Amino acid sequence: MKKIGFLEAFSIGVGGMVGGGIFAVLGLTIDLARGAAPIAFLIAGLIALITAYSYAKLSVRFPSEGGTIEFIVRAFGNNLFSSIINNLLLMSYVVMLSLYAFAFGSYGSALITGHEIAWLHKLLAGSVIIFFVFINLLGAYLSGKAEDIMVFVKVAILLFFIVVGLKTFHGEQLKPEYWTSPISIITGGLIIFLAYEGFELIANAAKDVEDPKVLPKAFYASVIFVIFLYVSIAIVTLGNVSFEVAKKASDYVLAIAAKPSLGVFGFVLIGIAALLSTASAINATIYGAGRVGYLVAKLGEIPETFEEKIKNGYEGMIIIGLLGVIFAISFNVENISVAGSLGFLIVFSLVNLANFKLYKETNSNRIIPLIGFILTFISAIILVGYNFVHNPSNLANAVIAILGVILFTYLYLKLENHTLKRYLDKDLEKKETSNML
After folding, report:
1. Domains along the chain?
2. Residue 287: pLDDT above 70?
């Protein structure tokens, strides 16, 4: 199998992050933070960058297809707690999948009819997931080639949007008098936190990287690039769209922001970028970490033989896809965002804690993962507190989902007498065993 280098690993991170989040909930972040929306993106990005430090260190020390959950097992053991976190991560990936599909439906409906139609929105959201499940069932090669093309085109269009949007830019709304309270600004960043989720997919490809030194560079470079991209997009959007319009067209605000400089062509161009971005994120999620999470949940490990992995992988793709369709057509985008952001904040806080605990093995500066743990943990508390006051129904649904994961995991392990294996990845187990001899 051909090994990958920095550029491929960097592309995995950027492709994973630049998905549906920036298109789906940019409007919500502007509504919460108003003129400070770029600051909200920066705050969320810095938290992601600190967490990327833990991922980089853990990936070099424990290269595994299991990625995040392998790190959790290494730090906390192969027990009920780790199983719950794996299933929470899997649920969060399903939420991501539905968020991307929701955004795809919004932009698709707006492109086809000029405005959003509920039934068409839901039809497109469900259809795009089913389509990419089918593409993935045809094989990894086709899926991978489609991903490469979509990532390149969507990033190129977004950079073009930033450059062109500066021509009609008006910075009045960015002034401090148009900023909201610090809590609202931070919460705006946390709601968009899913837009930074995706860099951890690099960890799943760690053992396929030719030179382990590439991993930290890929993690940091991809997150820093996306921070620049998102902050720039937020600035340009606020310079071209009023707060009122951003709130009214929150699901497709980027397309509206392109109109002043590019007219109808800009609306269509950004619509195409949104469709490609959400489609590529759906494709990557179905094939990538979501499938790994399903295999770990079902078998307690990643199967050693290629045939068995493919067989179970197909089953996982179909189940994850169906769950994504149900979520996409049943929940509104804000509801989905809160549940997904909270799930990833919990998981990322534990990855930081894992690196803090394993700092001697990962050769880490212990202060950085400790700061990462504190920030992600506090962020989760702020997100819960804000939604408790302003969106109690959304918070209730998120809590119900998490409690459901805990209950399901406990009952499944009891009924099936099933536990996680000591090592999820057979190759990592062989490597660790040989090092002990």
Report:
1. 6-432 (1.20.1740.10)
2. no
